[in-house]
Amino acid sequence: MPETASRLSVFTESVIRGTTRLANQHGAINLAQGFPDFDPPEELLAALERATRGPHHQYAVTWGAPRFREALARKIQRFTGLPINADENLVVTCGSTEAMMVAMMTACNPGDKVIIFSPFYENYAADAILSGAEPIYVPLRPPGFGFDPDELAKAFAQKPKAIVVCNPSNPTGKVFTREELMEILRLAEEHDAFVITDEPYEHIVFAPHEHVYFAALPGAFERTITCNSLSKTYSITGWRLGYVQAAPKVIAQARKVHDFLTVGAAAPLQEAAIAGLELPDSYYAGLRDLYTEKRDLFLGLLRQTGLPFTEPQGAYYVMLDISSLGFATDTEASEWLIRDIGVAGVAGSSFFREPVNHLIRFHFAKNASTLQAAGERLLKLR
After folding, report:
1. Do the beta carbons of residue 370 and residue 40 sit within 8 Å?
2. Is the pTM of this model over 0.90?
3. What are the pLDDT digits (tens) for 198-228?
4. Cα separation, 291 vs 141, whole angstroms
5. Please, which residues have CB within 8 angstroms of residue 312's CB and are 6 or more apart in sequence?
6. Left (φ > 0), alpha (ψ -120 to 50) or beta: where does 145 sit?
7. Quick one: which H or E segment has residue 281?
């Protein structure tokens, strides 16, 4: 029997999705895979019902249904101030997962290098490897998870084709400051590299922190490939609607990659999602308030365990330090938490290039009752 591709031997299946399967097997509360247990906005549900009865059951335009792209362009321009053209600056994808793969394959040739901050969302390294690129890892230093400018400069000195920036960050909840982003931009300009940003948590940021859109920085647009999705903002992770945003020359190439990866995102869901994109500013303020309440509730419960944790600036993840529990590895701890405590979290080592084995990532995108129940189970850790 022939051997499968050798590049597949250097990464595993998703640890996050594997943890979900284990949680389902043991009936644990799933705070591993970041999806809500509450409904999307009513406007979206009503629009979805209408879309199922409309003429939207066949292929949409490959790079996105025109009405959806136009609504998306208006929404992006509203928050970034960028003059986004629906026909020239956008490719609609099957979630930000595909968007990142499209961005990586559009930017990189086999053999190119890509800078990835560590810890990182697990897809980034796999996407680079599948693209034939070589990851260069730059550590983010706890507790604030900032980067050392000298270490980043040394990475750029290796002449990477691109750098990946997740902002707000999964898994750390870090929100990059304008000054940090400007330093990344300066180095990218000096070494003529793309900046691939992943921004699905753009509207989940906790005061006093503010999200800065990288593409909107002075001079950044032409070299920025923005990946994003509607999943987190509108609580529709299963709809799998994402997009790539970039300059026209980049988008012209990204369309080719997307066309041969998935052809297109689901047409009726694109039609229904327009209702979300047209929600007023008050919706986004309410979303921020909602997740601030969830964060405060869950962190309050974690404090009662006596275990240290990182306090997120954005997104909806918390890294819990389980050093004192005495497990040899975080994978062992994660399995014990699922089996014996009844709460699922992701082994932190899956996010790090460095040998880090003392963290578990939980998320708090759940109803208050779910978080309360999880917190009561986690009190056994005392």
Report:
1. no
2. yes
3. 999 999 999 999 999 999 999 999 999 999 9
4. 25
5. 168, 172, 173, 174, 206, 295, 318
6. left
7. helix 281-303
